[in-house]
Amino acid sequence: MRRLFVAALAAAGLAGVLAHDSHQVSRRKTLGFGPVLPNAAYHTNPVYHTSLLRASSDPFEVARVFVKDLVRGIPGSDFVIRKDSYTDEATGVTHVYVRQYVNGIEVADGDINVNIKDGVVLSYGDSFFRPKDSTDMFTAASSSSDPHSEYCQSLETEIANQLQHLDVHKTGERSNALEQLAYLYEWNCKFVDAPEFLADHPDFAAAEDAASGDISRALLQFMLAATPNAELQAQILDNPKKFIPEMRVSFQHHHHTDQPFFTVENVPDTVNPVKGRLAFVQVPQGDSTTLQLVYKFEVEMQDNWYETAVSAEMPHRIISVVDWANDSPVPLAPVPKEPQSATYRVFEWGINDPSLGDRSIQKENFDALASPWGWHALPVANDPSSSYLSAKDASKIRNTTTTWGNNVFAHEDWEGRNNWVNNYRPDAGPRKAFDFVYQPKKTDSEDALEEAQKYINATVTQLFYTSNLVHDLYYRYGFHELAGNFQQYNFGRGGEENDAVIANAQDGSGYNNANFMTPPDGQNGRCRMYLWNTANPYRDGDLEAGIVIHELAHGLSIRLTGGPANSGCLGWGESGGMGEGWGDFLATTIRSNKNYSDYAMGSWAANMEKGIRNYPYSLNQTINPSTYATLDKPGYWGVHAIGEVWAQILWVVSQKLIEKHGFTEDLFPPKPLEDGTIPEGDFYRKAEYTSDGKRKPLVPKHGNSLMVQLVLNGMKLQPCRPSFFDARDAIIAADKTLTGGENFCDLWQGFASRGLGVDAAVKGRTPWGGGVRSNGYAVPAECQNGDVPPPADPAPGDGDDDGDDDDWPWLQWVVEKTTVFSWSWPL
C-alpha cells in the first residue's frame, strides 16, 4: 500500500511534498476516520404513541418510556439518560441524550437524542445497536471488517482518480487537491498495517503483565499512528518494550456507573495522562452492525486532542478517531462590587479586518444576561491562577485588570506550548484602559516576526474583545450553560464549569492557520491563533474577526450536536465538514450588512482577494457554483472543502429569509430588563402567550437573526454524526418549533436551489465523504412554487465544475494561482 502511494506521487511530480513544506504553511498532523452506521436514522415527524399518553408530563419520563419501546427486544440491551440532557427555556424543548449499554458495557456510538415538548416527541436521532442475528452480535479484532483499512483503500482510489486528470509530463503541473490527499494518506495510513506487524513482534506481545498490558499496548499502537515525531515512531517499531513498562495504568470507578475508568501516565508524546475506558463500538457488516470491544482513549497531545477507539485484543486496530482540535436570569451567586468598566482600542464588532476600517475605543459591552459580572470578574474558587490561595479566599470575587476573565483567558503563546496560566498578557491598570499601539512596519524578512511581536498588547486585546463578544452573542441564541458553553463559573445555572476558552495569540507552533480544541463540557476549550507570513509586515490572524468567529464556532457546534458531554459527533465526512461550514457561515453572517455583498473567507490574513476557500460566498452561481453534488468533485474529500459547500447552502437559504423578513444591522438581542425579562424592542416579534398565560418562545423578526436562531436550534435537534440531510431537516424542524413552520417552503426552496431538495440522494456514502450524490431540486408538494429549476452552468471552460474535460484548464489555472492557500489554511 505504501509503495503504491509513493509511486503515485512520484509519477505526479509530488513525491517530495511530504518531505519539504515549500509553502511555509503550518500543517498540523491530524487523524480522523470511522465507520458510517447503516442503522443510524433521524426522524422529524412528531411521535404520538400510546405508551407516551400513559407517561407523565415529565419530559424525561416521556423519553424513558419512548426509548424503552425503541430498544425492546435487543438482547442484553439497556440505556442510561445522560446527565447533560436539559430543557431549553427559550424554546421549551427538552433535549434528552441517551447512551446504550449491552451486557453492562457502554456502546460508545449507540446514541439516541430525543427532542420533547409538551409531552410530544418532536424528533429523534437513533444509532442504537440492533443485531441482525442474536447469535452473531460480536466481532473479533481479527475480523475482516477494518474501518481504518477501508478508509485508506478509498483514499488510494481517490488519489488514483485525481491522477487521471493530471498531465504528469507538464513541467510543474500539480494539483493542490492531490497534495492535500497526499498529506491525509501520510498522516492516516502510514501505519495502517502496523497492528499485524506489532502483534507478531515478540517484545510487543510479551511486554507488561495481563492486568494492564493490553491497555498499554493498544495505546502505544495508537501513539505510533498519532505522533508526528518520526524518530519516536522508529523507536516504537524497533523497541516497544522500552515504552510499555513505563506506561502506568491506574483504575478507578466513575461515581455514576459501575464501569471502571482508568488513566495512563508516561505515554510518549502526550502532555497529560490519557483517560480511558472499556466500551463497545459498532462495526458495519452489510446493512447491519456488530459490536467490537475497544478501549476508548482521550489523548491530549501538543497539537491534537484525540478521542479514539482501539480494539481491545490484538491486533490492536484503530476503529475510529476524532480530533477535538478543529483547524449565559439573575445570578444566584453574590454579585461583586461594581467594577470599573473596561475600554479597548480595537477594530470594533462588525469590522472584519484592518483593511475595512480603523481601530477605535470600545466599551466593555458585555451582555447582562450572558456575562452578568462583565468580562473581567470571576470567583477565586474558579480561577486557575488562584489555586495557591487559602480556602477562606475561595468565596471572593476577583476583578482582573488583564485579559483574564470568566469567559476567556487571552495571552501570547510565542513558544507554541501548552503552558498558558503564566503567559504574558497586557495589564491595563485600575482604569482598565486597554489602549495600545498597532503600527507594524515593513522590515527585512528575518525581523518580521520580531516586528509583529512588538504589538502583542494590541493583538491580545483584540482577541479578548472579539472572543467575549462571540461568547455573549452565542449565549443569547441559546449556547448557554446547560447547553455546554465555555465559562469558568456558571452562576448556578447548571452545566459543567471551569471551561473558559484558552485563547493563544500569535501561537508559535505554526503560521498561516488557526484551530480550536473542543473537549466535553467542563474542560477548557483551546483556541490557537497564528501569524500569517503572507505579507510584509506579517498579518495577525487575531485581527481578522472572521477567523476568530470561525474557530469559536467549532466549540459551539460540537457541544450543541449530540449534547455537551459528547465531543465525538462531528469527527469526519459530512458531519465534520458541516462543523467547518457553520463557522464560515456564522463569520460571514456576522460581518454582513444591509447592502448585500459577496464575502471571501480569510482574504486579509492570506493577502489574497479570493481568500482561503475555493469560492467566495455568493448568490451568483457563476461566482460560487457549489451544490450538494459538488461533494463528489475532485478536491472535496476533506472536511474543509465539504464545509464550503454547506456554508454556501446556508448562505443561500439565509438570503431567502432576508428577502422575506428583512435585515437587522445588529444581531445582538435587546439586553434584559431589571426583572430579567427580555424586551421585544425592534428585534423580536410581538410576544405571544399560551392559554395559561406563559410567554411563547420569542421569534427574531428579521431574516438574518432568524436564520442564526434556526441554525443553532437545529444543532440541538440534529443527531450525533449528522448528514447534510439530517442537518437540513433539523433546521426545518427548528422553524416548525419556533414559528409553527411559517418558513417551511422558503427554507425548502433555499435548500433545493443548491441541490438539497427532497429528491436529493446519495448512494454508498462513506464515513469520510465518499459516495455518489445526485442533486435534487424538488420541494415538498405543499409548497405552491413547485420544483426549483437547477442552476444554470456558466460557459464551458470558465469554472462550471460540471466534471467535463473543459473544466480542467480553468481549474488547473485556479490551482496554480492558489496553490499555497486553497486548502493549507483549513482553520
From TrEMBL:
CDD domains: M36. Its cofactor is Zn(2+). It is found in: Secreted. The active site is at residue 551. Residues 798-808 have a biased composition (Acidic residues). Keywords: Hydrolase, Metal-binding, Metalloprotease, Protease, Secreted, Signal, Zinc, Zymogen. Gene3D superfamilies: 3.10.170.10, Neutral Protease Domain 2 (1.10.390.10). Binds 1 zinc ion per subunit. Residues 78-128 form the FTP domain. GO terms for cellular component: extracellular space. This is Extracellular metalloproteinase. It comes from Pycnoporus cinnabarinus.
